[in-house]
Amino acid sequence: MVYSIIEPTAPKVPILISSPHSGTEFPEEVKKQLDPSAIANPDDTDWFIDTLYNFAPSMGITMITANYNRWVIDLNRDPNSKPLYDDGRVITGLVPETDFNGNAIYANKTPDEAEIQRRVKNYYQPYHSKVGELLEALKNEFGYAILFDAHSIRKMVPGIRKVPFPDLILGDNDETSASPNIIKAALNPLVNSEYEATHNYPFKGGHITRFFGKPENNIHALQLEMAKTNYMNESETAFSEENAEELLPVLKQVFANLIATKP
Predict the structure, then answer these.
(1) Confidence at residue 86, expressed as pLDDT on a 0 to 100 scale
(2) How many other C-beta atoms lie within 10 A of the C-beta of residue 161?
(3) Out of the domains of life, which is the source (predicted)?
(4) Which is nearest to 225 in space by CA: 65, 76, 13, 59?
(5) What is the pTM of this model?
(6) Strand 168-171 vs strand 219-226: parallel, antiparallel, or unpaired?
(7) Which of 32, 149, 225, 243 has its CA 20 to 30 A from that of 204?
(8) Which carries the bigger pLDDT value, residue 229 or residue 160?
(9) Residue 169: domain span
């Protein structure tokens, strides 16, 4: 299955959390094409993001999580491979051929266009179709819907940025993918926390945020990128209950604010 759905365990609210990069599985036909050492350590994965947010269903929030790894196909990229940024940073493609630092992940031949389109059909489109379906259902029930795209990244990725990333980065495509009061509701707990928080820099939301965020159509989208050190151990190789427990009150306040705020 391309994705997993986690239903709310409390009365439903108009929020959908998407975790498109936490998947760790590889279809067999893709696994055969990749370098075995890359499969053994798919370092660009948003490790344990689905675990970090497992409190959300108890707040009435629906979740969708990708099962396949982003190296199969990147669900947060434009399907036509239009770059997200034009400032010279390394941007991996729709079907990445390297990791964030430019290391090759394929054993020999990289995917041709036919293979890329096969993956779009089999893995990309089902996830995006389901996100759209869930958002429309929430909008029909509540009059509006909020998509919260959840991501993480290593504190240091020299291929993208020569200095450490901020702890928390809220993206809303330069304040176009959500209404001002929705943005404010999410941003306030971040900037008033003990964590270093920024807004739309150095990330302003990927394709999912930009594509689905249509405030004029009563669908609002936000992306929260965070440093993995917030909830993983110092080496960013294992989940840290201690670090996560410190972060959770901030995340829970974000969603409490969003639940209490109407566009």
Answers:
(1) 66
(2) 13
(3) Bacteria
(4) 76
(5) 0.96
(6) antiparallel
(7) 243
(8) 229
(9) 3-260
pLDDT confidence of residue 88:
60
Residue corresponding to tokens 């965070």: 226
Question: What is the Cα–Cα distance from 235 to 228, expressed in whole angstroms?
Answer: 9
Q: What is the CATH number of the domain that holds 119?
A: 3.40.630.40
Cα angle 73, 75, 78; round to 5? 100
At 66-116, the pLDDT tens digits run 999 999 999 999 998 776 766 666 567 899 999 988 899 999 899 999 999
The count of structural domains within the chain is 1
Tell me what the mean pLDDT of segment 142-161 comes to: 94
Give burial (CB, 10 Å; 0-12/13-18/19+) of 38.
buried
Confidence category of residue 213, pLDDT binned at 50, 70, 90: very high
Token reading at 160 = 């993208």
Q: Can you read off the two tokens belonging to residue 214?
A: 């249509």
Q: 230-240 pLDDT, tens per residue?
A: 999 999 999 99
Pairwise CA distance, residues 46 & 173, whole Å: 21
State the residue for tokens 């675990």.
Answer: 51
Distance of alpha carbon 120 from alpha carbon 114, whole angstroms? 10
pLDDT, position 184? 98
Tokens at residue 218, please? Answer: 């009563």
DSSP E strand stretches across 102-186: 145-150, 168-171
- Write down the pLDDT at residue 167: 98
Residue 91 φ/ψ, nearest 5 degrees: -125, 115
**Dist. CA 78–CA 10, nearest whole Å:** 34
What angle do helix axes 180-191 and 241-260 make, rounded to 10 degrees?
Answer: 150
Phi, psi of 94, rounded to the nearest 5 degrees:
-55, -45
DSSP 120: I
